[in-house]
């Protein structure tokens, strides 16, 4: 509660509306409900904290009870399940999927499949937009820095390279063109660039 109140106080002087998504990764609902009661406008599930089927279900249950939103960054390494397991855990409920392009994170290599679900609001982040001359070249350094990877460790480099797929980045452009993905965010605190949205 204290942290959420400080965040809300920090933006009171700005003539904009702010909403804060709070940590949604908890298989029990009590802590999630506490954050919403403290002023969070929704919950964010993130792979770094374990986006398991149980945490997905718990966050969506709280959202249904409190009429708030849930956003998800799915499991790139497929440690907690695959894209079909995530779709099953979502169970037809409404959710916003960050990184539907797959290069910034999310089930590799088939997260884009999720854009075909009627209850899912897919979005991209701007590191992959637009797909142009330097898009692929800049990704490796961006990935290494943002995920605290070491370029001297071959496994770190392999992991970073596995997330940079020209095919899915190019397909993302087409999905935006046809409206299958209709939102984009800056991801400015990670791989994105806030000035390009």
Write a structural description.
The protein has 197 residues and is an alpha/beta fold. The chain has two domains: 1-65, no CATH class; 74-186, no CATH class. The protein is built from seven helices and six strands. The protein has helices spanning 2-10, 30-37, 53-66, 83-90, 135-146, 154-162, 166-177; strands at residues 21-23, 42-46, 69-73, 95-97, 120-125, 183-185. The protein has a six-stranded parallel beta sheet with strand order 1-2-3-4-5-6, with helices on one face. Helix 3 packs parallel to helix 4 (83-90).
Rg calculated over all Cα atoms: 17 Å
Total count of strands: 6
What share of the residues lie within helices?
25-40%
Task: Name the beta content range.
Answer: 5-15%
User: How many separate helices?
Assistant: 7
Q: What is the oligomer described by this structure?
A: single chain
Query: Could you say how many structural domains there are in total?
Result: 2
SSE string, helices as H and strands as E? HEHEHEHEEHHHE
Low-confidence stretches: none
Quick one: overall form? globular
How many strands, which pairing sense, and closed or not: the largest β-sheet? 6 strands, parallel
Structural class: alpha/beta
Distance between the termini: 31 Å
Lateral arrangement of strands in the main beta sheet: 1-2-3-4-5-6
Mean pLDDT: 90
């Amino acid at each position: 509660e204290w942290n959420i109140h400080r965040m809300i106080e920090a933006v009171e002087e700005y003539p904009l509306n702010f909403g804060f998504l709070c940590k949604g990764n908890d298989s029990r609902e009590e802590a999630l409900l506490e954050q919403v009661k403290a002023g969070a406008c929704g919950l964010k599930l993130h792979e770094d904290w374990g986006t398991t089927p149980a945490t997905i279900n718990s966050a969506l249950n709280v959202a249904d009870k409190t009429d708030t939103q849930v956003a998800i960054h799915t499991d790139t390494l497929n440690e907690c399940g695959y894209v079909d397991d995530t779709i099953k855990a979502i169970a037809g409920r409404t959710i916003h999927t960050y990184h539907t392009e797959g290069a910034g994170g999310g089930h590799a290599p088939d997260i884009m499949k999720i854009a075909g679900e009627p209850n899912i609001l897919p979005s991209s982040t701007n590191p992959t937009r637009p797909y142009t001359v330097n898009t692929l070249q800049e990704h490796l350094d961006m990935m290494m820095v943002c995920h605290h990877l070491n370029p001297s460790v071959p496994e770190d480099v392999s992991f970073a390279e596995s997330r940079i797929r020209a095919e899915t980045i190019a397909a993302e452009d087409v999905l935006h063109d046809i409206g299958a993905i209709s939102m984009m965010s800056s991801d400015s605190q990670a791989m994105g660039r806030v000035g390009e949205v």
